[in-house]
């Protein structure tokens, strides 16, 4: 009996990871098409294009990607054939499970539509390529959105009487489902500001149309303040999305403070979140952009600046951010602040890596090689290495950026005396403001404080 139970337990643990992997595998959706798919004319394409909204509606079980390219045609003799773009190759590499094909608007232009007899053949050729992929995707053919241009090269009459009938014929031949985005956008002239491209309200209708085709259900959906899939974290709305191929999260407070202040973690979202939870309660947005494994490299700095600019431009966050560097996140936080002091109100560091030779150090061979590769340097270059936070404090001190830091005096992973202690001493020598809180007998974990009031007070005062 005991042997049987042990065998059952062993099987449960052996089989569980595979089962979980299958459950977590996302259904991949590719939206291909022209500028309407891409989101041209929208102030925030990443949030409001129809593929972005479709992803929000479908939720975390789907990976919906936008493969729209402005001006493209399905016609291989057109002025900008989609099959000649690099994005077309990206679709093939993506190996989607579902594809929405939305062309015809640019094909309808006079210079392109003279090749109308090739339209069905070119669409068929595209379908044949996608159908032959290993992923064997389900393909939907979309009818073009309504065009409200009265005088121009693109005419809705050509779309209605020329393009749409041909798409229907191809769909019938291949037994593919039609997604009628033309009907979905009919009577919405006021939501096409330039008479061709939808605003976010019309994009939502297009997304609803695609959602109905996929699920067989209609769904009421409210336009979001932020991109990505909306969930809950600690009772607050959390938005999960990607930015330049890296994971990002925004957690919104119930009542945002005027000016939208925010605290930004470049690593380890949700770990030891006492400070983040307190800041949310006070009206701060908590933002995470995952740069943890880039070792504060120039690439991470560039990505961080692009992300910061997007937060300011598209979501109206305060131009002064609170940086929060946990562990290796300290590499990015300090160096980015040193390069952008005018963008930083203060820095909160927690058991931070301040010297790459201390962590990962040459003793962790794999991580050390990963660091060298990320920085694109060789071992012999280390004698002139200038990327350590302890060496980049002058701009912060000159800009009078205040720092509060927490660390355990018994940290065996990122030793205090090799990292924060040196940083604090050098910052004070530069007459920089820094407050250090030492946790006696504490190792690298746990981070933060059980009662984070001193950290909160420091941030609010600066």
Automatic annotation (TrEMBL):
Q: Does the keyword Glycoprotein apply?
A: no
Residue ranges occupied by any SGNH hydrolase-type esterase domain in the UniProt entry: 31-198
Q: Which PANTHER family match?
A: SGNH HYDROLASE-TYPE ESTERASE DOMAIN-CONTAINING PROTEIN, THIOESTERASE 1/PROTEASE 1/LYSOPHOSPHOLIPASE L1
The record, for InterPro entries, names: AB_hydrolase_fold, Ester_Hydrolysis_Enzymes, Peptidase_S9_cat, SGNH_hydro, SGNH_hydro_sf
Q: What GO annotations for molecular function exist for this entry?
A: phosphatidylcholine lysophospholipase activity; serine-type peptidase activity
- What organism does the record attribute this protein to? Bacteroides cellulosilyticus
Checking SUPFAM superfamilies in the record gives: alpha/beta-Hydrolases (SSF53474), SGNH hydrolase (SSF52266)
Q: Which domain of life is it from?
A: Bacteria
Q: Which Pfam families match?
A: Lipase_GDSL_2, Peptidase_S9
**Could you tell me what this protein is called?**
Prolyl oligopeptidase family serine peptidase
Query: Which Gene Ontology BP annotations are present?
Result: proteolysis
Per UniProt, residues of the Peptidase S9 prolyl oligopeptidase catalytic domain are 315-444
The signal peptide, as residue positions, is 1-21
Keyword set, alphabetical order: Signal
